[in-house]
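Before the break, one more example. Copy the sequence into your notebook; we will annotate it together after we see the structure.
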Amino acid sequence: MFEIIAIIAAVLAIAIAIVLILAATKPDTFRVQRATTVEAPPEKIFPLINDFHQWGTWSPYENKDPR
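Here is what the structure looks like once it is written out:
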């Protein structure tokens, strides 16, 4: 019984060591980038984005947010 527990502990320790080694080799920073195309002229979009009170007229999350 002790041998089985020792084997499980060794496998678990090796798995944790592998995860830590892989994490240590990854870069410290990363970048998330999104892009979209808005089919409207900037003169029409800017007043909506510039005025926070206009948020509800264009926000896709306005109707999804529970109140």
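DSSP finds three helices and no strands in the chain. The chain has a mean pLDDT of 90. Try to locate both features in your own notes.
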